[in-house]
Each structure stands twice: as C-alpha cells, then as structure tokens.
Amino acid sequence: MENNRMGSPPEKPSSEASEPKPASTQPASAPSALRRVKNVALTAGVLLFLVGAGYRTGAVLQGRSLAGHGATRAIVTGASRIRGNFQRMIALGPGAGDARLGMRDKAFPQTLDSYWVALNTIVQHFYNPTPITLFTDTGRAIFSNPQRMRTYLTYQGIRGIMSSLNDPYSRFLDPEAYKEMQQDNAGAFGGIGAQLEDENGKIIIAKPLPDTPAADAHLLPMDQIIAINGKSTHEMTSEMAVRLIRGKPGTPVTLTILRAGKQFPVRIVRAIINAQNFDSKIIDGDIGYMRLMLFDEQAADNVEKALEGFGKKNVKGLVLDLRDNPGGLLNTAVDLASKFIPPGPVVYVQERAGQRVAIPTNNDPRGRHRLPLAVLVNHYSASASEILAGAIKDTHSGTIIGTTTWGKGLVQEVIPLNDNSAIALTIERYYTPSGADINKKGITPDIVVGRQMAEPQSQADVAKWLNERNAMDKTQLDTAVALIHREIGDSKAVANSGVGSGAQATGRPRIPPASLHAPAGQKR
Amino acid sequence: MRDRATAMGFMKSRHSQACSHPVSGRVLLILAMAIVGVAAMGGPAAAKPGHQARSRASAPRKVSVAQLYANKPVRLATADPAQEASPMPTLEGYWKTLDQIRGSFFNPDLKTTPDPTDLTYAAIRGVLSSLDDPYTRFLAPAQYAEMQRENRGSFPGIGVELSTVGTTLSIVKVLPNSPASAAGIMKNDELLQVNGASMTGKTAEEVGELLKGEEGTTVALMIRRGAKELPFNLTRKEIDYPHFESRVIGGDIGYMHLLMFDEQAADNISRAMDGFSKQGVRGLILDLRDNPGGLVTAAVDVASKFIPPGTVVYVQERAGRRNGLPTDQDTAVTHHLPLVVLVNHFSASASEIVTGAIQDTHSGTIVGIRTWGKGLVQEIMPLNDNSAIALTTAHYYTPSGADINLKGIMPDVVVGHIVQEPDDQSDAAQAAYNRERDQVDAQQLQEAITILKQKMTASGPRVALRK
What's the whole-number average pLDDT of chain B? Predict the structure, then answer.
C-alpha cells in the first residue's frame, strides 16, 4: 500500500556508500559490542516478495572493521598492483596470501584466477545470436564495453554465490537496490511526495501526500503519468517511474499528466519527503496508539515525539502496533526497546564462532517510568520487530497481542562493495533476553487474536480477503484497548471485553487475562 | 537409468595430450551437446534415459568437445590488466564477497564454512547462467574429465557398465576385449566390493569413479553370481567407448553407425570402408541417428570422406567474418559409392554439420526426420583447477549458407516421427516407448536400404563417368 513513494535520498557522501569507514570514525562513546551492532542490518529479506516493493529492506552498515579489510583495500587500489602481488604470491607459495592480501584462505588466489579467466573469456568470445536479456539496447551497451560487461557478469556471479549459501536473507544488492535500501533506512528522500500504482500498464497517482510538492502542485488521485521529463512511461513499472521522479531536493521534474482526457505538463521542484513509516494518535480518550511500519533511522525520534505529545494529554496506556513491520535497523530496535523495557539486555547476538553478547538498553529514562503497554504483532512482524516484541515479552514490560510473528532470528550485515553495490550477509543469530531462539519459530503472542491468513488467490478474492483482514486487525486492536483499560482500572474494561472473544475466535483455550498480566503488574 | 555409468579410468599421458593442447594456451573448441544442453532445460533430453534403457549397446553419450581448428589463430583469454583499464573493481567485488562469507557468514544449519572453491564454482555458474544460453555451462573437474574421455573416445578401465536396480549394483554389460571379459566377469553379476570396500548404498556413478585408474594398475572386485561370491583381480587397460559400429547388410550395403564425433570417428570410418571395399560393397549407409555431435574437427574429417573437396562448413564468431573450414585433403573422398544418411530428432551439432555438407553438395540422400537444430559452436576453456567452461563462441552455416540453428535439417526423404517420451517411468511405459522407437528405427533403415538400392542400380553409369 505504500509502495513506490517518490523521491530520492538526501545526498550522501558517496564515499560512505562505497567504502567502509575506518573504525576510528565510530562514535568513541559506544561500547564495543554496540559499535559493531550499529553496523548491522536487520531485515526480513523474504518480506520483499510479500510487500512487493524493493524498499522494505533492512539497514545499512556504516563500516565494520574486520581484520584484513584494510590490507585488501590497499592492494586493490591499483590493477597492476594486485595482479603483480597475486602472481608473486603464487610464487611465494601457500601462506603468502594471508600476509600480502589480508586473505583468510590460501585457496583464494586460485579461485580468483579461475573467476577472472572465466569472466574474460566470456567478455571476449561469448556469442549468442538470440535476443536474450543481455541484447536489449541496454544490454548491447553493456556488451560493447568490456568493463561494464564484466561488472554486469560479476553481479550475476555474486548473485550465484549468494544463492549457493541457501540462506534467504543473504543477497546481493546492485547499486540501485543498495541506494533504495539506504533511502529506506534514512526514512527520508528527495522527491515530490506522491504514491504511485501500476494499473493495467498505466502509472497512476494513488495519493499525493499532504504538505508535499505533489500536493502543492495539485496532483490528484487517479491522475495518470504518461511521461517523466519527456520520457514516456509506456511499459514502465511504477518502480522505474519512482526512480526517475526521485532526485536531489531543489531540482525540478516535469510530469506529463493525463486527467479526464486532457494532457498537460506539471513542473514540480523536489523536496525532502519523509517516508511516513510512523503514525500516532490518541484513541479512546486516554490510550496512546503508535504504528511503526519500518525501523528506520527516524523511528526512535518519531516515537519519542509521540510519547512527549501523549504525556501532555495525560495518556494512561500505550498500544505499539508492529503488525506488517518487516524490521529494519538493529540499533533502532535497541533504541526503541530502551523506551519500553527496564534497563538490561535487549537482545543477545552470537556470531558463527562467537560468544553470546548482550546488547543493553541505552539509559533512556523512559525505560524506568513505563505506562501499561500492549504490542500488536502478526505473521509479517519480522526481524527488528521480533527483537522489540521479544524484549518486551521476556521482561514482562507489556502484553503481546495478535498472531505468531515471522520468525527471523538472524542478523545481516550490509557490506558495501567498491562500486556502490553491496552484499547483505547473515553474520549472527540472536536470542531474546530469556535466551529463546525465535528463528523459524517466531514469537507467540501472550494473547493470540486472529489467524495467519493465506494471500488471496485471485482478484475475485481480494475484496473478501481485505474485509476479513480489516475485521481481524480491528479485533486485535480492540483486544489491546480493552486490556489497557483493564490494567489502568478504567471502567470501560468491563464493557469492552474484546480479549475473551478474540481468544475464542482463534479456537484456542481461553486464557484468563489476569494471570497473563500478573507479571507485568509485579514489575511495575 | 541415470545411475548407469561405464566403469572407467584415467590415463595421464593421453589426457594431457587431449586436453591441454600444446598449441593453444586456452583449449579446444567444441560442438554439440544438444542433448545435454536440453537436459538442463527439461526438454527432449528427457528422451535420453528412456532411450539408453534400450538394449542397444551404444547408447549415445552426452557430451562432446571440439578440437582447435587447424588454421585457427590462437586466442588467449588473458587476465592481463593492461588490456583494459582498471579491472580491479570487478575482481574486488568478487573477492570481498568471498572473503566476507569465509570470515563472517553464519548459517545455523551448516556445520562447516562454505568452501572457496565451491563458492567460485557458484559464481561462475551464476555468470554463465546469466547468458541465457543452454549450451554455455560450467564443467566441474569430474565433468570436464569425463568430457575429455568422451572426446578421446576411450578410457582406462575394466570394461563394464553398471546399473543400480533397487539396492543391487549389477553389471549390465561387459565390453568385448576388455579386462572384465578376459577375466570372465558376466552380465548380471552383482558387484559387492571394490578393493575390499563394500559398495552397498553407492550409486553406479560413484562406483564407476572407483573403477577408474591409470592403465596398468589393478583393481580387486568381489562379485556375487547366484549363490557364490567370487573374487576377481583386474588390470585396467584402455577401453574404447562404443561410439561406432559397422556391418555389411544384404551382401553389398556398408552400414556405419556413428554415435559420437570423437577423435577416433574418422579413423573408424576409414577402417570400416577399407573393409567394405574388400567385401564388394556397392552402397553406403551412414547412420547419424541419436548422435549428439562432438568435435568440430571430427565432423570435418568425417565429411571429407563423403563430399568432394571444398568447404564443409562456415563458422562465424561474434565479431568475425564467415570462415570456411575446408575438407581435409588427407582423408578426402576416395570412393564414389551411393550414400544414404540416416538422421533423427537427436542428430545434433557435428551430426548436422556432416548432414548439411552432404545434403548441400548433393553427395548423398538424407533420410529420416528433421534434425535437432543446433547451429552454435562451443569452446571448452579450462580453468586452473581442472574445471572448465563450455562457452558458445560461434555460429555455423552449411555450405549453401543455411543457418540451421533452432531449425534443424529437413531430410530429403522424411520417414518416421518423433516418439514421445513416456511421462511415467513404469517398466510398461518404457517398454512401449522402446518398442515404438525400434519400429521407427527399423522403418527408417528399411527405407534407406530401398533408396540406396535404387541409387545403386541407377548410379552405375554415373560412377563410371566420374572416374
């Protein structure tokens, strides 16, 4: 539903994207475990398919200092140098590689050679008379340039490597995908502020967002975009259109709009657009409701602002809605958890051959003065959502309501390669504060309300599916509201006993809500 | 049937001759593997297992290789960075990916770290599959070694074919003049042990690997025959693949069945034709049915025996001109006998080069059904660890300039049809399939004989004239 927001990210120094920062640029105050964690991306890559848009991915690593990186990079700066070193290394025999190239394996030179020879053979000699992907106009341009050809092929090669790992979360990000991931993580980008849709091969404006250049230019829902800067959108997907429309804030983009049979150009100057991954409101008079759709860099600030607003309005309890939230940055999850749980570990992470390392809360004073809290989750709450929900559940700081979560207990690091592409690589597993491994299991809510719904199979099923989905979402929210009222001793709790009906709806045994909540009460 | 493998071995000296061609830093050109290529696509390759199931001794082999054209300039796929500006960004991405995986990748389901060689193979497979070409593919060391043996046409081994039936590992064929036949190993013997190790649970392919070895080395087998267990000690020797057979039909027709264009193909045909001339043969049948192709050089040499001096095939590379490959003067046509060529849907690649040359030069009558349609040439390019890539590098055209890719060659006389591969693997379905295949094959051969006899009657004077 919020696919294809337009805009491009605020300009980032390109060096940041392409080169890992030296360790010295890390915040000196960060404890070492945290410093590493800050560099870690956490995402449910699988959800990309479900959400249908490339942007719902995880986070960016700003640079992790691994032994050997520096050496490798130093060597690779010059073509002749690496080749020369490589040759010499072979001459020097096994072991020389480690010292000279910062490699972990002496087997690497041989594989490097195999790969390089294979690549060059293709570039020089491959012949195919049939019009394959590579031989579109773009393909021909690539094919006629050996360097671009090698880059193209290497992307395919790295994809091949990643898929051989049998890990759905480890994947290659080409420069476009990586840039989109960075924009998503930033939670803001340069654009015009309109949501686009594909409709029967047409690019349609689904909604101009309020207070954006798109709204100022009086774009309307159902306007069809037939050209962008004069380039026809014929056979373009909405994702491709979004890429063209996004750009540096302050620069103009001209859309050719078709509205009610009339065609006219609209010139719009791009601005910084917030991604709107968060919204909040007060419901039922004294309950603060917050919906987080992605753990981006702005999430903690957004939540803090909302909590401040709630404080002024004398809110007595909170509902945190993590449904359909595929995750995001690990450190954002930690920052958010620090507002909802008492000081202590948020999560334990463990590398391949490493110890479990606790990542603690960050001394947020809100962690010591908490309101009654209900957390809404569903099957598509994944990754960072599960870290946060797990921490809240295990510390009895709130009640988890909804359906069992996705079950992604693995952490990816996003490692930039040298040309603005990157790999997302699974490097750690994590455990909730009680030591639970939720991978492939998910978190079972304290109160199960609703059921996991299969995707609609046909267009005809969509309306029915949406109705059921909306009804379930409402039942879950009602359950949370009723629970909070009960906890704060509000009289509405009796009248609005959604807890019981929700639990019954799933066919599960009815659990007395009081016993579920005793621990939370004690802690307070 | 997939499990059937020929017990084979490996001879170092011949291997090096065949694979690292002394002239070329990069190695040999190949052709054909239509069948294998299609296997990957799930197409007619599926026909193969069923067909191999037939009792015919010489099931067509999968792969093929090509030799460097004699007159082809040596091209080295260099990794010379001076050739291109800054190759390093490309290499660095690959390198760093490997390094990160080795250093940090964590998969709770895996006990070991991914092997860098496997990762590189995965990368090369990824690169090659992005080219969308069914004939371009990666050959792991074992596959490459097998291809080299295929192209050589022989292998050091003991001369048995194995098959797993249920959990039983049986010998389904003993090749004549092999160490196995000399020692008295028989069809349907059950193989229990190799060099003292139990073979229980192993596939025919795995056992085939164990039976390989250098010529002159020995291997000890334990065989069960009926109730008895018998030990055998065999010395490996070079065994020819059953890629060729010939016989005289009806007193004066020389029949040659070529199942693969290996290095021995032209010699085998020469030898057969020498024999035919002593037996008063007056017409020839060249059977190329189910022949998936092989070496380009073998195709040129074979064609040279049947067509007048001239061009066998035109080859064109990506940025190159059409280059004619001429008939080989040393093996040029020495007979003027009427010729019929039998082809079917599985005649591919080198088979199509020969068929096209014979058809375009009116040197024989093509009988059967439309051929496969593989008009592309692959080169085999060895990498530094005994793996290799097979890369499509050229298109070829028949002497008349026809492009047969994806089209095939239409026979002069169409006889028979494509026999549909059965969907289910039941014995009954396989038997029905084999029966129909045999019927079509017999029908085509009968028609070839009829046509040839007409030509033999009619061509008497013409032969005289040509002389």
Answer: 79
Determine whether the interchain pair B131/A122 forms a contact, defined as Cβ–Cβ distance below 8 Å.
yes
B336 near B467, Cβ under 8 Å? yes
Instruction: Tell me, yes or no, whether A211 and A105 share the same domain.
Output: no
Q: Do B117 and A170 touch (CB under 8 A)?
A: no
Q: Which among A72, A164, A427 has CB closest to B106?
A: A427
Give how many domains chain A has, as a whole number.
Answer: 3
| Cα(B313)–Cα(B402) distance, integer angstroms | 10
User: How many angstroms away from the CA of A171 is the closest CA of chain B?
Assistant: 10
Query: What is the full DSSP assignment across A430-479?
Result: EE-TT----TTT----SEE-S-PPPPPSSHHHHHHHHHHHHHHHHHHHHH
**Residue A314: how many other CB atoms lie within 10 Å:** 9
Q: Write the residue in B103, B387, B394 that is nearest to A104 by C-beta.
A: B103
Q: B77 and A117 in contact by Cβ < 8 A?
A: yes
A3 φ/ψ angles, rounded to the nearest 5 degrees: -65, 160
pLDDT digits (tens, 9 = 90+) for A357-389: 999 999 999 999 899 999 999 999 999 999 999
- Confidence class of residue A503 from pLDDT cuts 50, 70 and 90? very low
Select from A184, A199, A216 the last residue of a domain.
Answer: A184
Least Cα separation, residue B419 to chain A (angstroms): 28
CATH code for position A403: 3.90.226.10
Q: Tell me: pLDDT of B233 over 80.
A: yes
Q: Which residues of B are designated catalytic?
A: 349, 360, 374
Q: For residue A383, give both structure tokens.
A: 């990754």
**Residues A414, A419: Cα–Cα separation, whole Å:** 14
Query: Residue A73's domain spans which residues?
Result: 14-184
Partner-chain contact B127 A425, CB within 8 Å: no
Q: What is the mean pLDDT of residues A512-522?
A: 29
Q: Considering only CB atoms, which chain A residues are within 8 Å of B393?
A: 125-127
Clarify whether residues A226 and A315 are in a common domain: no
Number of CB pairs < 8 Å for A and B?
Answer: 238
Is A161's pLDDT higher than 90?
A: yes
* SS3 of residue B118 by DSSP: helix
Mark which of A274, A303, A325 sits at the end of a domain. Answer: A274
Together in a domain, A403 and A461 = yes
Cross-chain residue pair B107–A164, CB shorter than 8 Å: no
* Type and span of the H or E element at B160: strand B160-165
CATH number of B244-466: 3.90.226.10
Q: Say whether both A337 and A388 belong to one domain.
A: yes
Contact status of A138 with chain B (Cβ, < 8 Å): no
Q: What is the pLDDT of residues B252-289, one digit of tens each?
A: 999 999 999 999 999 999 999 999 999 999 999 999 99
For a pLDDT cut of 90, what percent of chain A falls above it? 51
Name which of B75, B83, B101 to mutate to probe chain A: the one with the most chain A Cβ atoms within 10 A of its Cβ. B101
In this structure, the answer to whether residues A161 and A304 fall within a common structural domain is no
Fold annotation for B1-18+154-240: Pdz3 Domain (2.30.42)
Cβ contacts of B100 on chain A, cutoff 8 Å: 66, 415, 423, 425
Alpha-carbon gap: B210 to the closest alpha carbon of chain A (Å):
27
Q: Helix A146-163 vs helix B116-129: angle between axes, to the nearest 10 degrees?
A: 120
- Percentage with pLDDT > 70 across chain A: 70
Q: Does A126 touch chain B (CB under 8 A)?
A: yes
For A215-250, the pLDDT digits (tens) are 999 999 999 999 999 999 988 888 889 889 999 999
- A56 part of a folded domain: yes
Q: Can you give the residue ranges of every domain in chain B?
A: 1-18+154-240, 89-134, 244-466
Contacts of A410 in chain B (CB under 8 A): 106, 108
Which pTM does this prediction carry? 0.72
Phi, psi (rounded to 5 degrees) for B317: -90, 175
Dihedrals phi, psi of A414, to nearest 5 degrees: -100, 115
pLDDT at A42 over 70: no
Taking CB atoms and an 8 Å limit, are A107 and B117 in contact across chains? Answer: yes
